[in-house]
Design brief:
It contains four helices and no strands. The longest helix is centred in the middle third of the chain and has 56 residues. By secondary structure, the chain is mainly α. The chain is rod-shaped and about 85 Å long.
Length: about 120
């Protein structure tokens, strides 16, 4: 057990008889070792928490950017649609069967719109 504490925490914990326990120095030494071990654990936990906070901040940043992009796309689509199409939106949202179609449309990236091409008609 002592070797485990020594290898994990780099702290040697004296075993019975290693120090003069009659003077109370052994109790103080053990308390100091425990405090050192707790400080080491605390520093490792703080480091892990800081790393996790950085990861979460990056995810939040990405989600905010994505949300902004989707809001701009939504505004563009609303501006390109007519009132009849907009009036159908509340009925589609109320219909639970159409949500999978809406999700499939949302999941696909927007395709660039191109004007319809005129067919090649050769006059005979």
């Amino acid at each position: 057990m002592n070797s485990l504490a020594t290898s994990v925490f780099s702290i040697a914990i004296p075993v019975d008889g290693d120090e003069d326990s009659a003077s109370g120095g052994g109790v103080v030494a053990i308390d100091n070792k425990i405090e050192q071990a707790m400080d080491l654990v605390k520093s490792h936990l703080m480091y892990a928490v800081r790393e996790e906070v950085e990861v979460l901040k990056e995810q939040i940043k990405e989600l905010v950017e994505r949300n902004s992009l989707l809001e701009r796309e939504n505004a563009l689509l609303k501006s390109l649609s007519n009132n009849d199409q907009l009036s159908q939106l509340p009925t589609q949202q109320a219909n639970p069967g159409s949500t999978s179609q809406q999700q499939a449309v949302i999941a696909q990236p927007p395709q660039p719109t191109q004007p319809p091409q005129q067919p090649n008609v050769s006059s005979a």
